[in-house]
């Protein structure tokens, strides 16, 4: 069996064990599928982003794609509360320039950005389990973005049973958002792309598109 498949299998087992041990801290039971990763990173401005922040990188399924596409001069900050994940990611990506993994709460993001002399992030990618957080609104409130920044959050469709519907909070802090359903993930997942201004939705890595032509729900 190829080593890459072994690593993926080990990552899945590790994530499941961590979920069973810390169910209130780790919201995923399996690594993100490629379909979910592609959707999460659809609008990330890799071509000009100066700062990319990831909340809850976990075992690094989404992280690997972010770091493969970011420019060497772009600062990447990965924040996670689970120390074993942080250590694993530090060892795995120790040779990637301008890449830091910190054991920290997502609410520390503004202070951490200030520490690195960065007022705002250009993209913030979140895998936080918002449906089980005590104050889920803070996930959107704390997102410190530049004017044309992008905030991405995914949520398992199972969370809808609990009545968790992020747009009720998104509307307070963002001017525009869209929702896409990813069926090819375990379990199926909703991805929320949030923009401070409607105009930002019309820019895809330098390519102009009509915002009204995108499948937008809940504007």
Fold-level CATH name: Rossmann fold
CATH homologous superfamily - what is it?
Answer: Vaccinia Virus protein VP39
CATH top level assignment: Alpha Beta
Radius of gyration (Å): 16 Å
Mean pLDDT score: 82
Alpha-carbon distance between the termini?
Answer: 47 Å
- Tell me the strand percentage band: 15-25%
Listing every helix as H and every strand as E from the N terminus to the C terminus, the arrangement reads HHEHEHEHEHEHEEEE
Low-confidence residue ranges: 1-27, 204-219
CATH architecture: 3-Layer(aba) Sandwich
Count of domains: 1
Largest sheet: 7 strands, mixed
* Helical fraction: 25-40%
Structural class: alpha/beta
Strand line-up across the major sheet: 3-2-1-4-5-7-6
Brief rundown of the structure:
The chain is α/β, with parallel strands linked by helices and 219 residues long.
Explain how this protein is built.
This protein is α/β, with parallel strands linked by helices and 219 residues long. The protein has a single domain (3-213), classed as Vaccinia Virus protein VP39 (Rossmann fold, 3-Layer(aba) Sandwich), CATH 3.40.50. It contains seven helices and nine strands; from the N terminus they run ααβαβαβαβαβαββββ. It has helices spanning 3-21, 34-40, 61-69, 83-92, 109-115, 137-141, 167-173, and strands at 51-55, 75-80, 99-103, 121-126, 145-156, 176-182, 189-195, 203-204, 207-208. The strands form two sheets. Strands 3-2-1-4-5-7-6 form a seven-stranded mixed β-sheet, with helices on both faces. A two-stranded antiparallel sheet has the order 8-9. α4 (83-92) links the parallel β2 and β3 (99-103). The longest helix has 19 residues, at 3-21. Mean pLDDT is 82; it is low at 1-27 and 204-219.
